[in-house]
Amino acid sequence: MNTQTKIALVTGGSRGLGKNSALKIAQKGLDVIITYRSNKEEADKVVEEVQALGRKAIAYQLNTKDIKSFDAFVKTVGDHLEENTGSRNIDFLVNNAGTALYAPISEVTEEQLDDVVDIHFKGVFFLTQKFLPFINDGGGIVNVSSGLARFALPGSSVYGSIKAGVEMLTKYMAKELGSRKIRANVVAPGAIETDFGGGRTRDDKQVNDTISSITALGRAGLPDDIGGVVAFLCTEDSGWVNGQRIEASGGMFL
């Protein structure tokens, strides 16, 4: 990594949308740091793929639910960057890491709700807070939301509601960080064929057919449909896009 090359940190970058985002960001000429929760082998493969594109990459373990670990994580990343670039700073933070919860309101437990809040809201809030001193002025934050913050499907009450909270939080980030020329935006995927939620969009034909039937472009999404949108928000081409929600769902529920 050199001081001229911009750097993006993508949480949950070992598979699915995070992996695709990391690769598309690298194709835009940025160096990449990814995090993974448990699968080091998959994360290392992503690092190799980024390096094959001629960019620098490194992977770190991080559980975005474990907020007490964030200080040590930020220090580890900063130490690595200082040694390799002379600066502890990054340019873009992509808050992508997450898990699914499918349960009707009548059955959601307090523990399940707390998990979603910790991973998808508190984790996003405090990881961003911890990195604020180390995001270069003129950089950006990309928060990954969901189509489920716009439309309601039974079983996603907690997940969709928390993602709606993240979307409002993003506007506050854009407002409060504007003086530093740091932009904050949301990418909201529709249903995507990944491992997410046990891979049900990809592997359950009935679910996949239903999604295809309510999507203007006639199919469920793929990781390739999303990563480029995230990468766009990590470039100067999106320099005047701020505080916005970009839904990439192929036109679900139009």
TrEMBL record:
Statement: the UniProt record of this protein carries the keyword Oxidoreductase: yes
SUPFAM superfamilies linked to this entry: NAD(P)-binding Rossmann-fold domains
Keywords on record: NADP, Oxidoreductase
One Gene Ontology MF term: oxidoreductase activity
The keyword Transmembrane appears for this protein: no
Family: Belongs to the short-chain dehydrogenases/reductases (SDR) family.
Protein name: NAD(P)-dependent dehydrogenase, short-chain alcohol dehydrogenase family
Lineage: Bacteria, Pseudomonadati, Bacteroidota, Flavobacteriia, Flavobacteriales
